[in-house]
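can u pls check wat happens w/ pyridoxal-5'-phosphate
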Amino acid sequence: MKLLGTMSVKNDELHIGGVSCLDLAKSYQTPLYVFDEQLLRQNCRDYVNYFKVNERKNRVAYAGKAFLPLYMCQLIKEEGLYLDVVSGGELYTAHKAEFPMERVLFHGNNKTIDEIQMGLDLGVGRFVVDNYYELDLLEAFCKQRGRKQAIYLRITPGIEAHTHDYIKTGQIDSKFGFTLTNGDLYECLSVFSRYEHLELVGLHAHIGSQIFDVEPFLDEVDIMMNLVKELDEKYQIKIREVDLGGGVGVYYTENDHPKTIEQFCEAILSKVDSSCQRLGIEVPTLVIEPGRSIVANAGSTLYTVGSTKDIKDIRTYVSVDGGMTDNIRPSLYQARYECAIVNKMRSGDQKQVTIAGKCCESGDILITDVDILGIASGDILIIASTGAYGYSMSSNYNKIPKAPVVFVHDEKCRLVCRRQTLEELLALEVL
Ligand SMILES: Cc1ncc(COP(=O)(O)O)c(C=O)c1O
Ligand SMILES: N[C@@H](CCCC[NH3+])C(=O)O
């Protein structure tokens, strides 16, 4: 397993943020999500620095869907980021964490009436409008309130990025946004003046997630800048802000070769400059929405090893005390991860095993066929890079309580989410 961030090995034992993983497992029990706060903050700072947030007034909006406990809202507020939310629940979290609402972008392809009203009442900075249904509702509610709302239109740019089918979003056959290539967007613009209470300040696109190549993003830049010019010339609409979405790929295993945040930002910014120069337009304020590339590598999950099943000449299953309830990504996207035993961080003879979860599903496998050093019941296993879409996509399937989240930094721990209790599991149920 590759050591990421502040991971270090002392006496064959893995530490994160200077804290022993064995001690963490003892103090908080397993399964347990552990976040390396230094790495997480460094990723935020790299984005702020290399995306030229201060110099060019660009904006980095953290995609809350990746992982959004209250403390994350506080942390990204401190780091000067904006926040992308996609539901009333995420919006409420931001509100409770006293995140500045003018820095919130509200996404979603089917915001409910209640969510739209909540967004307006709380004063979110930008609605990223996905369709006519939302435009009509927003216009009506703004009219009732006698106020205007700044919006972006979500564009489907027609870009096929190379990633898993379920996490592609830029292609024409997508549920998101106004399609560019079939004329949907132009139809919307031609009637836009009827939305008197909506101020169209920006365009948004998001081409997908876990994308390593920079080329699809550069194509996206070209498409968006062309649109900025076209909207001005044909519709006299001045676009001041262009949001390029998220999607930057990260390291999960040695097969992944991601760009650094610096390389990615530099490629985007220089493409924006050359594109705007070619078109003879002003460089707009740029927004990006990284989720995974801020939190994925900062998070890991600790498990206790339980039963083992050795099927001669076929496979050895090693089961842990978590699984698809705390990390659905292997079952959903065939996602691969690296792992290690936290108290056996040395080289030696390895054996191939399959790490299984404890759910009542054959598909509840965390890692298929991984080479690992003599694993035994009671060992503490770490799966690395579970920080994005692990906790946020966790479930109570099989009535398994949600695992806690602890942040480690400078030899100190901070409990960010406690473990769900059995009583809390039943809290919604009525007899
Ligand atoms: C609109 C939008 N913005 C940002 C993101 C964040 O993507 P990622 O976590 O891949 O950076 C997503 C998720 O794919 C998204 O749908
Ligand atoms: N949840 C997905 C990514 C989709 C992001 C939302 N558009 C993942 O775990 O990779």
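The longest helix spans residues 215-235.
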